[in-house]
Amino acid sequence: MPSYNPPLRDMQFVMHEVLNVTEQLKQIPRHADTDADTINAVLEEGGKFAANVIFPLNISGDTEGCKLDKTTHEVTAPKGFKEAYAQYVEGGWAALSCDPDYGGQGLPFVLNQCIYEMMNSANQAWTMYPGLSHGAYEALHAHGTDEQKKLYLPKLVSGEWTGTMCLTEPHCGTDLGMLRSKAEPQADGTYKLNGAKIFISAGEHDLAENIVHLVLARLPDAPKGSKGISLFAVPKYNVKADGSLGTRNGIYCGGLEHKMGIHANSTCQMILENAVGTLVGQPNKGLQAMFVMMNAARLGVGNQSLGLTEVAYQNALIYAKDRIQMRSLSGVKAKDKDADPIIVHPDVRKMLLTAKAYAEGGRALACYCAMLLDQHLYHPDEKVRKESDEMLALLTPIIKAFLTDNGFEATVMCQQVFGGHGYIKEWGMEQFVRDARINMIYEGTNTVQSLDLLGRKILGNNGATLKKFGKLVGKLVEEEGVNEKMAEFINPLAYLGDQMTKFTTEVGFKGFQNPDEVGAAAVDYLRVAGHLVFGYFFARMASVALKEIAAGNTDPFYQAKLQTARFYFAKLFPETASLMRTARAGSKVLMDTDLALA
Length: 598
Fold this sequence. Notes:
It is built from 18 helices and eleven strands.
């Protein structure tokens, strides 16, 4: 059986020693009183909930899966899920970072980010039930009418109700401009919706008494394409004016998807038959409102893979220290045993360190982005709000794609550490691999994220936002460039920063002449950008560690951090050279292949 130990020490290191979040939060009036002790106390309790309540349900939930009653269209989650959700609601976890005006606790998103990382490590399928609710809350909070906010937000904030996002249809996935679901206006100001949606995570379940579906559909006079999409709030049960539940609405689960992973989350085919809904935001501008939820979901999906990377690493490390196999190539290490623990073998250490580096780099980036979100939403200075939003927009596709690509690679490597036992269900490793695989697909495939990064976020504004991140890198290089002990981190980072400008200009020029060049380079480009970002944070973490060691701090945590940073820059960061070379190979070898693909 696998185990899980919340990485509280590393979370505290990132937040308090690297990002100095409490100092930044002091600049935000609503978070000015959030101190380190509060953050640490909440993290500790959140870790207990993750490790003690939902982690024990991970394998059993995967084995049991969800059950659909085709007569009533009701879905039952695996045993223990409903009770765990009740504990989640009772503990106030759903309200952690929500607006106090609607019953929330008003704590920072950067803290909520770490709580969700631990819950994703413990049980990704379970965590998706409340996770999607938070995205629905954000969309309604930003674009809902006063009546919608009054009706839905208190229940979503408390966790009494959950939420979903209903986008995908059988004939269209990412290309939402093709969707066919219809919304007919009614005399009372509501709309009746008809259509079908697929792949709706947590679309139907028995954890909460009501589900608020955010549904994309077309009005009768809507223009074609993505400019003719509207957003509607469609509850499972219609809600009376006093907030009590009324009749069953015309939206129901027609079938459950049979999936590779996340078996314990109900991925539903949802049918709408004269379902009553209310318009969210402006007519034909539904994507603008839905993107609030979609962007939150993309950050959340990156967080899912971060959680799986951490838990897979922890279990592989324990196994590698215990499992004996062969002798070390450099001589016997465990003289009292018939063989040495496999952790003595270089390639086993490479796999372990890859997962560790991807977890620690991902955690630093995820916390940084959550802090940007806090600043964007609540900082009193409009300039800070705008710049934080701009930087977050740049980093969101990297969070989603780079962390999920890395997460799948890391879980596969950790499974490999177990050898044959990694393929056996009881050890838990094969489930981590299966669960991680979806994260590269949903909320916009990683190719779509790459196109978004390169085509829209970088070339779309002539690299202006990328240059702003480059200034952060340049500032760090300037500050640490004369420090010989930092040379092994700063020199490769500075070199890639310089190369990135030339690389981006070259890809942009070729793309201007032939748009397929952008498509051909985008995936490689995003990974290069991901390494630039990881390299920046690993250099910052190494700098903090070196300063602590120089000050006489003997905590082995800091030496371990330096060793991980050295591994990352020596073994993973150099991937950028081959990626830039394959990106520069262009589109011809991909597109001039009709005979090869005949």
